[in-house]
Amino acid sequence: MDKRDNLSVVIHKKEDLRVEQSALPSEPGPYEVQLASNTVGICGSDVHFWKDGCIDKWVIESPLVTGHESSATVIKVGSHVKNLKVGDRVSVEPGVGCMACQVCKDGFYNLCPDVLFFGVPPTGGSLRRYYNHSSAFCHKLPDNMSHGEGALMEPLAVAVYACKRAAITEGSGQRVMVTGAGPVGLLSALAAKAMGAQDVCILDINESRLKFAQQMGIDKTILIDTKLDTESLANEVIAILGDSPDITLECSGAESSLNLAIFVNKDGGNVIMVGINPRKVSVSLSSAACREVNLLGIKRYRHSFPLAIYLVSSGKIDVKPLITHKYRIEEALEAFHTAANPTSGAIKVQIECFEQS
């Protein structure tokens, strides 16, 4: 009889988060691996599901294990798995397309209408000790990367994919503006630099976040004065970058930031909408249209984990300073309160899930 402890973090309903046992996974399927979870980061979406019980159309209707920023160790492999073996440490890509529809066949598996994504109803997440996952979506970690860094590959993959969509390239002399200095904004700024941007400027309303960005090597920062109009703020951006940005990575989800991006971006440039906006926003579409400013959305990522891992393992990006708080899974309730508290100073809160001997 399997006597393993599968302690898990489960959202039962709005503002009802529990640390409790969940069922152990069955034997992995032919193309699956069984994973012993090591580290899971808390994402803003995890907090939203806990606090609100839903995000847009995705509603917590029954108890659901949360979590999707994960690293783990392979403990069993399915009969047809060839890319991994027992003992491999992996960063876990949490969204798996059906791989049978035309969207998946065309390579856009992140846009699959039937994608299963950890921690988004009805799919249980990875904040548990043991679970199965598709081997194709487990990315082996090199020896010089920790499990904490491995768990950060999920949000870094968002940043990498945004930079790929923006067509940031080495030697292009591109100037990049990043709006929002939360975890994804910070990672987007770091990825833009690592992938070849000449200059990167990051904006936020939180001075401590900007000071943190400077410590991470993003030396051009602007503290947003909410009393300034869009044109005045745009002039600040142009002054610090030396010209209008060629590319904007909008990571705040704020309507005002999207309008700033459209207003200040160079004609013909790309604005990547990384942050999640409210369902309806008022933006200057006529300005974007007449100046051929390209508004490009992203849905999470595709084909981006390998590059994210390379950028960290090669030393081009150091993500370790972003990990400001670590907890054991038994302390998950405290960890979530820390992540949700804007005065805690948390950038990335991580939870260690492995059983202690």
Automatic annotation (TrEMBL):
One of its GO terms (molecular function) is metal ion binding. InterPro entries: ADH-like_C (IPR013149), ADH-like_N (IPR013154), ER (IPR020843), GroES-like_sf (IPR011032), NAD(P)-bd_dom_sf (IPR036291), SDH-like (IPR045306). Residues 15-347 form the Enoyl reductase (ER) domain. SUPFAM superfamilies: GroES-like, NAD(P)-binding Rossmann-fold domains. Keywords: Metal-binding, NAD, Oxidoreductase, Zinc. CDD domains: sorbitol_DH. It comes from the Eukaryota. The keyword GTP-binding does not apply. Belongs to the zinc-containing alcohol dehydrogenase family. This is Sorbitol dehydrogenase. It comes from Medioppia subpectinata. The lineage of its organism: Eukaryota, Metazoa, Ecdysozoa, Arthropoda, Chelicerata.
